[in-house]
Each structure stands twice: as C-alpha cells, then as structure tokens.
Specification:
Number of domains: 1
CATH class: Alpha Beta
Largest sheet: 7 strands, mixed
Number of strands: 18
CATH topology: Metallo-beta-lactamase, Chain A
Bound molecules: zinc ion
Structural class: alpha+beta
Strand content: 25-35%
Length: 284
C-alpha cells in the first residue's frame, strides 16, 4: 500500500489479489510476438496481473474505488485464474485502523468479479454485503447488464457480488458524469462494458484518473492494445481518443486496476502513438 496526495485528497494505492489471465485475450488483436516482451506469459500463456483498488480520504469520508477479489467462487475458479491473496484488502484497511464498516462509499467501476468481488462475503453460509454502512455506486447501465446477463458476459458477472447488495438496498445508481463529492467525479468510460465508469480526482491543480479497464495495465496504453474481453472494442478506442490528449495535457496521474508492477503512470507521446510510463512513488 502506498499513500500519495492529490491536492486535498489523501489517496491510498492498495493491492488485493494477484491473478493471471490469458495473454492473448488481454492484448486482443496484438500478436504475441509483440506483447510478450512487455508481459512475459507463463507456460499456460497467462500473464500476471494485480488487483489494485484505491482508497480515497475526502474530508471526513472514506471512498473505496473497486472492492477487490473474493474466494467465494471456489477452488476451480481460483485455479483457472491462479488467484493468490484474495482479500488482502482487509489487512491494508486494518493498517489504517479501518474496518469495512468505516467505508462510506464504494465505487464499482463495473461489476465484473475481479473488480466487485468483495462487494459481498460469505458469512455463516449466507452471502451478505461486506460494506454494511456504505452506499455502493454503479452506473444504471452496468447494474442492468449485470442483472440481465447473456452467454458472452455471464462468466464475468457473478450474481453473488450484486444481488445481496441490491436486496439490502445499498446500491445507488448514477447516470452519466456525476460529481460524487467536490473534486471527485465519476466519468463514463464505455467499451469494456457499456456501463463502465472511471474516477477523476481534481484538487489544487492536480489530477488523478482511475482508468478502470479502459487501460487495465500501463502496457495497454497504446490505442490498439484493447482486450478481447471488451464487449465494445471500437468504443474503447473512441473513448481513449476522446480523453488521452486531455489527460496528457493536464499531466494526469493514471492509476490502472491491474498493472502487475506499477501503481501509477502517465501518458507520453511515443514515436508511434501513445504509451504510458510508470511514475516513481515517493520513497521508492
Ligand atoms: Zn478487470
């Protein structure tokens, strides 16, 4: 866990589980001979990834962006994705003297199991919301899609991460761009899913963007490096084109949800288009 400041916001860059996904699926149409240098695969063609939720202290409030990954789906799921250390989030909250009941807002960028897995936990044979005092924030479109799945997205949306929160009345649907708190903005970033949102922090001239799966790792910054998991890959491309120049001009720090090594990066214009470079953290 690392702590930085963005103007008046305190930002904690957390690390939850490590896991692995198929390298070919992670880089879409980019051939392995090109991506394998940046992301060396294991003998099963999987590349290592980290779950990186972000905790923001905004005045008196604690805002958790992404809830991490959980063990609920069981052993087969754990083996397929080589999940290790699910729930490491708890220890990091505890280091700050926080329990789940201290979190005021949970922002779900989208409701896939690797982003919203700890929305709920299994307790005494029942699956219940983990952040009992929080409002969970998701786009209306995302909640609709997560509760009306089809064959192409069903493996990613697990009802156990969504339904208990709905039943407890803890979800708050938002539509479009919303200023959730002063300087903390939810920004629709469709493509990976239609209802995906990122988070923009702006304070005292500084900007940080939590990219969600628009840019799952820094290696995915180049425009055509789009995951095969994206339901609307051309929309991902359009959304990147819409925002990259602005983020670059503002010198925005980018926090990605899955980079295996670097919690933060920044866009740079390479000779052949955009790329992202890691930003060293204070004290590293
Ligand atoms: Zn993801």
């Amino acid at each position: 866990m690392q702590r930085i400041e963005i103007g008046h916001f305190e930002v904690y860059l957390l690390e939850d589980a490590r896991f692995r996904l198929d390298g070919g699926a992670m880089f879409g149409v980019v051939p392995r001979v090109v991506w394998e240098e940046k992301a060396p695969p294991d003998e099963q063609n999987r590349i290592p990834l980290t779950i990186r939720p972000m905790l923001v202290r905004a005045g008196e409030r604690w805002v958790l962006i992404e809830s991490g990954m959980d063990d609920k789906p069981g052993e087969k799921h754990r083996r397929i994705y080589a999940i290790e250390g699910a729930g490491a989030l708890f220890g990091q909250l505890a280091e700050l003297g926080l329990g789940p009941e201290d979190v005021d807002l949970v922002v779900n960028t989208h409701l896939h199991f690797d982003h919203a897995g700890l929305n709920t936990i299994s307790r005494g044979g029942q699956v219940v919301p983990l952040f009992t005092k929080a409002r969970y924030i998701a786009q209306k479109q995302e909640l609709y899609d997560a509760t009306h799945t089809h064959e192409r997205n069903r493996a990613s949306y697990l009802p156990e991460n969504v339904e208990p929160v709905l039943e407890a009345g803890l979800f708050e649907e938002v539509e479009g761009e919303v200023e959730l708190l002063p300087g903390l903005r939810l920004l629709p970033l469709p493509g990976h899913t239609l209802g995906q949102q990122g988070v923009v922090l702006e304070s005292e001239g500084e900007t940080l963007v939590y990219t969600a799966d628009l840019m799952p790792t820094l290696a995915h910054a180049p425009l055509p490096y789009i995951m095969a998991y994206d339901l609307y890959p051309v929309t991902t491309l359009e959304v990147r084109k819409r925002f990259y120049s602005e983020w670059h001009e503002r010198g925005a720090l980018l926090a990605t949800p899955h980079d295996p090594v670097h919690p933060l990066g920044r866009l740079v214009r390479g000779g052949r288009g955009w790329k992202a470079e890691p930003v060293p953290l204070p004290g590293t």
